[in-house]
Specification:
Layout (H helix, E strand, L loop, with lengths): L11 E10 L8 H8 L10 E6 L8 E6 L14 H5 L4 H22 L10 E6 L9 H4 L7 E17 L4 E4 L2 E4 L6 H13 L1
Antiparallel strand pairs: 1-4, 1-5, 2-4, 2-5, 3-5, 5-6, 6-7
């Protein structure tokens, strides 16, 4: 998180970049969340943050990035070589070529109609404590995820800093903390999930 203002649980913060829907994040353990979002095993071992979008998006605010099966919002499998990986066609470029700018904007407006301010379909951002590594091949760093929605925000947007999970798997929301590893209790997991849907 270098270069970023420190995140404070319960505060509002600005963020941009890749986002998904709450249904693909929720109260998952590190291992389950890595598999859902397409992070390499161990990426979340030092912890992560979950941010909840707190403003309404307009079509001009985001680009389509496919689903989390597609690393980096690009077509095909991630490459071992970073330059070759960047050369893969981006999902948004393909849609623009097929539909044109007006068709792309119509598709954005339609997609936004399926997003809710709360619940499973709200927009969330996960920020790993361990940053992206230039030394790791894209094919290793970003394997296929679980297939959740993936958009890229074009500008900083307002988010609630809703959940912090540390390296020991202790999850914190305002006024509550619990273990969120593989053996977390149903009640604790449900309380975290409920907060992420309702906050």
């Amino acid at each position: 998180m270098s270069g970023r203002k420190p995140l404070v649980l319960g505060d509002l913060a600005e963020a941009e970049g890749d986002v998904t829907q709450n249904r693909w994040v929720g109260a998952r353990s590190a291992r389950a969340l890595e598999a859902s979002l397409g992070f390499h095993a161990g990426r979340l071992s030092d912890g992560w943050w979950v941010l909840l979008l707190k403003e309404r998006l307009k079509p001009a605010d985001f680009d389509f990035a496919g689903i989390t099966l597609r690393s980096g919002g690009r077509l095909g499998l991630p490459a071992r070589d970073p330059a070759a990986d960047r050369a893969r066609t981006h999902v948004s470029d393909q849609i623009l070529a097929e539909r044109g700018p007006a068709g792309y904007a119509d598709l954005q407006a339609s997609a936004l109609a399926g997003v809710t301010e709360k619940g499973e379909d709200r927009i969330v951002k996960v920020i790993p404590v361990t940053p992206h590594s230039e030394a790791m091949a894209p094919a290793d760093q970003y394997p296929m995820g679980g297939g959740g929605l993936q958009w890229t925000l074009r500008r900083p947007c307002s988010f609630l800093v809703a959940l912090q999970v540390d390296a020991q798997g202790i999850a914190r929301i305002p006024g509550f903390s619990c273990f969120l590893g593989e053996s977390a209790t149903y009640d604790d997991r449900a309380r975290i999930a409920r907060y992420l849907m309702e906050a």
